[in-house]
Each structure stands twice: as C-alpha cells, then as structure tokens.
Specification:
By secondary structure, the chain is α+β, with helices and mostly antiparallel strands. The protein is built from five helices and 19 strands. The chain folds into two domains: 109 residues, Rieske [2Fe-2S] iron-sulphur domain (Rieske Iron-sulfur Protein), CATH 2.102.10.10; 204 residues, Naphthalene 1,2-dioxygenase Alpha Subunit, Chain A, domain 1 (Alpha-Beta Complex). An eight-stranded antiparallel β-sheet has the order 12-18-17-16-15-14-13-19, with helices on one face. Strand 6 and strand 7 form a beta hairpin.
Length: 337
C-alpha cells in the first residue's frame, strides 16, 4: 500500500522545541524531538482522554499532554502519570501508535504503515553538492497526488497556464520519447522550442542546446531536468504527500548549476518559480472543484498525455498491494507545442 512508503511531513527546521501536528493520508500525527534531538512521530492523541498531544509540550524529550500531564515517549509508551503517586506508577499498559520516522536532507519523513518498503526515503538530487545552488518551496494543492504529478510532468499545459512566462504556442511538432523505468517512467523532448519564454530567455543562452527530460519516480515523486550544452542545469523535484483524498502537500526542491554568480540567479529564479507554481495551484484547484461538482473524474486519455498512464498504473497497483511488472518499453509520440 502507499502507506508502506516514506512521505515527507515537514521541513526539519519547522520542528524545534514544541510538538507539531501534521496530517498524512487523513491521519493525525504529532512530531517531537527526544533529548538527543532525534525526530519521532506518534498518533496525535493522549492514551488517557484523546487530548491532542500537539497541544502539549516537550518534557525531557517526551510529549506531555496538556490535560492531565501524561507523558508519552518516542515509542508511544506512557512513561509518567502525574496523578498516581511515584511509588505506585504502573504505566506499562498504556501506549499509542508510533510511526517510523526518518530525517534526511532537511526533511522529516514518516511511514504510516510501520513497515517501510524502502530502507530510506528517496533523495533530492545535488543538494549540498559543490557548484550547485538549491532552494525549497512547500505548496498545498486541493488536488490528488496523481493530478499533481501529471501537472508537474506535463508539457502541453504550459502553453496555456504559463503562457509567455514559460512557453508560448509555436504550432511546432516535436518528437517526445517515453521510456519505462524500473521505478517509473521518463519522457524526453527533442528540439523543443524556447522562443517567447521569459524563463528560458533569462536562464539560458539561445546558442546553447537543450536536453529536457521529465521523470516520474514511483510512487510520489517528479523530476524535471533542463540541461544545456553550456553546462547550465536546472532540476525541479517535487514530492507529493497526501493530506487527505482531495488535498496534497507538495515539497519542491529546485537545484541548479550556473557557471558564474549562481547565488544571484536565485533572485530571479525563485520568485519566478513561485509565480509559476501559483498558476498551477489555481488550475488544479479549479479542476478538483469541478470534479467534485460532477462527482467523478471524467478524464479522456490521448497519446500526448505522456506520463499519466504510468503514474496511475503504478499508484493503483501499489494501492492494491502489487508492484507493476517492469517491461522495458520505448515509444515515440508527435507532440505539437
């Protein structure tokens, strides 16, 4: 099941000296840090009277309930009941669920099933690598992870949703190649036009050659690479953590390599990225609202919807407790952009 995989719940710097409430797969979780600073995750309820532990405080590396002061350690075990005299403490029979928790690359990950399939979460490329610069974004979408992933890996929508900012219509036919991978699928776009685009105009040289690939990494990650022949390289990676059936928290890491004054490029690249993702938020929120009005996703599928079939196939299979069989495939599609 999807709950067997690691999912990001927050940035590391957001979890400090107080408990923190997060929601994942519509389940309420509280995060805390023990006395050594290690993050842990519990269900957000006191074993005594179901009080949200996220309203309490951290006491000696444990979460103290604000109602009667019951303390829960990193395993969910109740360790102290203040109303019982110390000589008669018998807390061993009281415990709440604890979840595997992993801290990596400035994010805290949780596995709700308690039995993570992966030993460690996937990594964002080139974070902390010399010569690369990185910034992060967190965005709430009123959309499913499937629709978010498709949007991040979809070329045709950029002509309309991000017109002129990212791409303008050229009525040019290009070749798109789709390749199945052991962990998902990848699309590659050949001789993609770059004229009438603020993004490409600001961040690349018109004399350079572009290699553009979109990759779906099952079950919840997207990666978009724009690599230029002059060594400039931009990578937009997004991880989709479902809040509930209709909302998704998206954690985006943008890493880039720029020959000179890379830190200065961020002054332009970051606000531009935030503008573009706001346009996606508006679009997907409208899509989800209309889907709710009609009661279901009435979607049509065409060959130019390159990666959605792979996204849906992988995620539906995992939900059914299966893993899609890997069959090496390459397919070329004519795409008008």
């Amino acid at each position: 099941m999807l709950e067997d995989y690691w999912h990001i719940v927050c940035a590391s710097n957001k979890l400090r000296t107080k408990p923190m409430a997060v929601t994942l797969f519509a389940k309420h979780v509280v995060l805390g840090r023990d006395e050594e600073g290690k993050a842990f995750a519990l269900e957000d309820r006191c074993a005594h009277r179901n009080m949200p532990l996220s309203c309490g405080k951290i006491a000696k590396g444990q979460i103290q309930c604000p109602y009667h002061g019951w303390q829960h350690d990193a395993t969910g075990q109740v360790s102290l009941i203040p109303s019982i005299p110390s000589s008669k403490q018998n807390t061993g029979r009281f415990k709440i669920n604890a979840y595997p928790c992993y801290e990596q690359q400035g994010y805290i990950w949780v596995c709700l099933s308690g039995r993570p399939i992966q030993q460690s979460p996937p990594e964002f490329p080139y974070m902390g690598t010399q010569g690369w610069h990185t910034f992060r974004m967190k965005t709430r979408f009123k959309a499913t992870p499937e629709n978010c992933l498709e949007n991040f890996l979809d070329v045709p929508h950029a002509t309309f949703v991000h017109k002129r900012w990212f791409r303008s219509p050229h009525a040019k036919t290009i070749q798109a190649k789709v390749t199945t991978l052991e962990d998902g699928a990848m699309g590659e776009y050949l001789q993609e036009p770059r004229k009438k685009s603020w993004v490409f105009g600001l961040l690349s040289s018109h004399k350079s050659q572009l290699t553009h690939t979109d990759r779906f990494i099952a079950p919840s990650m997207s990666r978009v690479d724009y690599q230029f022949s002059d060594q400039r390289h931009y990578i937009i990676s997004s991880f989709c953590s479902p809040v509930n059936e209709q909302e998704t928290e998206v954690f985006t890491v943008i890493s880039y390599r720029y020959a000179y004054l890379g830190w200065l490029i961020r002054l332009v690249f970051e606000p531009l990225s935030r503008l573009i993702i706001k346009q996606d938020v508006k679009t997907l929120n409208q899509q989800q609202a209309n889907t709710a009005r009609f009661g279901e996703e009435k979607f049509a599928q065409i060959p130019q919807d390159l990666l959605r079939p792979h996204i849906v196939r992988w995620r539906r299979a995992i939900q059914a407790g299966q893993t899609p069989e890997y069959k090496p495939q390459n397919k070329q599609v004519d795409l008008s952009v």
